[in-house]
Design goal:
Length: about 160
């Protein structure tokens, strides 16, 4: 039986419904440098998942989000490494504040119709149709390599 490190984390996609845009982070650093993802990160040991997502949004964007909507829970497994994440996926269309430069990458507001043109991390590409569907909630497991390319997946739409 394999053993390894499991990280609890989150990723959030801020959606500006007035402009029909979604906020992405183009990563500055490895792993997955130069690829696009949502904002988010690790949940600290002593914080709840919802609070960690709000903290990560604020740290990476300067914005304060409200009314997070849980879109799913995905386990990601990095093939060939002892690394796995339990990733809570959220959206929010209610946020305020002044956007800042992110220390982890460049923030881009992208038209929802242009999302498929982005150089997305592979497992983010797999979940985006569900993220963008108002009614979808998903769970599953995605195995990927160091570049984020999906090697196998099992995604179940539970709603």
């Amino acid at each position: 039986m394999a053993t390894g490190k499991i990280t609890i984390g989150n990723v959030c996609f801020l959606i500006d419904k007035n402009k029909n845009e979604i906020l992405f982070l183009e990563r500055f650093f490895e792993p997955m440098k130069d690829l696009f993802t949502g904002v988010g990160g690790k949940t600290n040991f002593d914080e709840d998942i919802h609070t960690s997502c709000l903290r990560e949004i604020n740290e990476e964007t300067g914005l304060n989000a409200k009314n997070l909507k849980l879109k799913g829970i995905i386990k990601t497994i990095l093939s060939g490494h002892d690394s796995s994440w339990i990733l809570f996926i959220y959206t929010s269309s209610e946020f305020y504040g002044k956007q800042i430069d992110c220390p982890e990458g460049k923030l881009h507001w992208v038209g929802i119709n242009d999302v498929e043109k982005l150089n997305l991390i592979g497992f983010i590409r797999e979940i985006m149709p569900f993220v963008l569907n108002e009614d979808s909630i998903i769970e599953g497991t995605i195995t990927h390599d160091l570049t984020g390319t999906v090697l196998s997946k099992k995604i179940i739409e539970i709603q």
